[in-house]
Design a protein that fits this description.
The protein is an alpha+beta fold. The protein binds sulfoacetic acid and manganese (II) ion.
Length: 597
């Protein structure tokens, strides 16, 4: 008798009508075969799916050019279909699940005709981890099959693991005809199902990533008592050889990937990478918070990545391993067959082909690489991969760092007074738009815990869940906020950033291990300047002062803006958060009082 998995695949094939069905086994040979198919048979528009890059400098690497309209996540076409809208909350687009399924069924009828349906069995998390999940994704494009093999633990063992059970995470994906008006990314949290049509872009098409591991997993975590977070995981090794594990949440364009692979400028300190995007956080038997990264790949933005900004990533991209590396929508040096992008730190080559496969016009204002050009690379290629990466129970987390990009108000680093205060800081973190984005420069977008586009349920309930998690931890991590982007009066940054951020991490580690004191301010606990390791920096003393200045009078509009943001979540916003809001106002109006905590 057919297993529930086989029956489900047959049902989807009956609807989408592929020419053939191919069950992937996750092997190296198979990846090569899929790449061959992508180089020779499958196409998107006029381009083949894969183009072989110079194998000497970029071993096992391939270029992919997307459909020109399909270059980023499409949040306005992304829906979370809970039975009632209130559960999805003001932070999600919502459609009634029945209506959503009817729409998708119509759009999917015959959508795989002439194509292969790839069946991808994969785990999110190490197969031996109690927190791992068995998943199946269907897709009709080799690019997605190969990408999933880089990003997840894919293999036929997963099918054995699922066996006759119907408890597996389901993903249905078709690129359809790439028409944005027929593009939808729909989540059905109670069925552990993601259904996506019309896009091949990472976050829309690699359904184990944002769709399952954040949107649906955050809902599972809410029901089951854990957290699925948009966070990097790193280990910070100090000169004594002790490694302290921390996670960090940052909205995009705030240096998250660089932090995940930070090259320390402080002798004796090293950062070890465990994850660059997603952390699943569980309460361990010892009352500490344990983190696993459910993925095994890095899906990062290429433009701006250089030997200066992220040398470890550059090495990772050139490392040789049996996992392939994909470059999507970068430029191409036609003479050497190597990828090129703006901000790579090397001059543009003479014969440069742009991301759409046309000769680059240096006189025009177009870019050779799309600003969201990406690489997809195995984390095992990283020279700084933590030895604990494959640890099934994860690593114990001592600090949670919440980042943002603010030109003023927010100090370089501060420690929350306690868990509840830390959660409040998380509700209001935000990022000012930069010139790199299409939006107006300097507009603040609040993005609580960097989860606004990824929380699969009402964010008011999400904050309540964070507060409850804190109560279950007998040894909760300390919560910190960082802001590398505070400006001096002339639009220069006050802090050098990049590898020197290790100096801030050192202070955080020192706080965790009770090695250093902190100064109380209305906003939280900040370093005494003498406790920051600044040797070799030549930072003007006034910069240091400005990095930590609190001007209560400047907070008036900020407080108003925070209030307007929090009000959006209505009655679902926990009282405790409003309590923290009023406590902040109180501290700012009595800045000299001794004890804020
Ligand atoms: O594809 S991802 O969603 O992981 C990257 C992004 O667009 O944010
Ligand atoms: Mn991300």
């Amino acid at each position: 008798m057919a297993t529930p998995l086989e029956t489900w695949v047959e049902q989807q094939a009956a609807l989408t009508q592929p020419d053939r069905i191919y069950w992937c086994d996750g092997s190296e040979d198979e990846a090569r075969k899929l790449i061959e198919i992508g180089m020779k048979e499958e196409k998107i528009g006029e381009h083949n799916i894969f183009y072989e890059l110079c194998q000497k400098t970029y071993p096992n690497s391939y270029l992919h050019r997307s459909h020109p309209t399909d270059v980023a996540r499409t949040e306005h076409l992304t829906y979370v279909c809970h039975p009632d809208q209130e559960t999805a909350g003001p932070n999600n687009n919502w459609m009634d699940p029945k209506e959503a399924k009817n729409l998708l069924t119509q759009l999917s009828r015959g959508c795989m005709r002439g194509r292969t349906m790839y069946v991808l069995p994969y785990m999110m998390g190490h197969p031996d981890s109690p927190y791992a999940r068995a998943c199946i994704q269907l897709t009709d494009v080799s690019y997605v099959a190969v990408s999933m093999r880089i990003m997840t633990r894919m293999g036929k063992k997963v099918i054995e693991k699922i066996g006759r059970s119907d408890d597996f995470v389901k993903g249905i994906h078709s690129v359809g005809d790439f028409d944005p008006s027929r593009r939808f990314i729909m989540h059905f949290p109670d069925e552990h199902l993601v259904w996506s049509i019309g896009s091949g872009y990472g976050g829309n098409a690699l359904l184990g990533k944002k769709c399952f591991s954040l949107r649906i997993a955050s809902w599972l975590g809410f029901q089951q008592g854990w957290l699925a977070e948009h966070m990097v995981i790193i280990g910070i090794e100090d000169p004594q050889g002790q490694t302290t594990y921390v996670t960090a949440a940052m909205p995009s364009a705030c240096g998250k990937t660089n932090l995940a692979m930070l090259e320390s400028t402080l002798p004796g300190y090293r950062v070890w990478t465990l994850g660059d995007d997603i952390a699943w956080l569980n309460v361990g038997p010892d009352g500490r918070l344990y983190a696993i990264n459910p993925e095994i790949g890095l899906f990062g933005v290429a433009p701006g990545t250089s030997m200066k900004t992220n040398p470890n990533m550059m090495l990772t991209l050139k490392a040789s391993h049996f996992y392939p590396t994909l470059f999507t929508n970068t430029g191409l040096d036609a003479d050497t067959n190597q990828p090129w992008w703006e901000g790579m730190g090397v001059p543009a080559p003479k014969n440069l082909i742009n991301w759409q496969g046309k000769p680059h016009q240096p006189s025009g204002n177009g870019l050779a690489a799309h600003p969201n050009a990406r690489f997809t690379v195995s984390i095992y290629n990283s020279p700084m991969l933590s030895k604990d990466f494959d640890q099934p129970k994860g690593v114990p987390i001592s600090a949670i760092i919440l980042g943002g990009r603010r030109s003023n108000l927010i100090p370089l680093v501060k420690e929350a007074f306690n868990w509840q205060h830390g959660v409040f800081i998380g509700t209001r973190t935000g990022s000012e738009t930069t010139a790199a984005a299409i939006h107006q420069v300097g507009v603040l977008r609040r993005d609580p815990m960097a989860m606004l586009p990824f929380c699969g349920y009402n964010m008011g309930d999400y904050f309540r869940h964070w507060l409850d998690m804190g109560k279950r931890l007998t040894h909760p991590p300390k919560i910190f906020s960082v802001n590398w982007f505070r400006l001096d009066g002339q639009n220069g940054f006050l802090w050098p950033g990049f590898g020197d951020n290790i100096r801030v991490l050192k202070w955080i580690v020192d706080r965790v291990h009770h090695r250093t004191e902190a100064k109380e301010t209305p906003l939280g606990l900040v370093p005494f300047v003498k406790d920051l390791e600044l040797e070799g920096l030549n930072l003007p003393a006034e910069n240091l002062e400005k990095l930590f200045e609190v001007h209560p009078e400047e907070w008036e509009p900020e407080l108003q803006d925070i209030k307007e943001f929090l009000i959006r979540f209505g009655k679902r916003m926990p009282e405790e958060i409003w309590h923290e809001y009023h406590a902040l106002i109180h501290r700012l109006s009595n800045p000299s009082s001794e004890h804020f905590a």
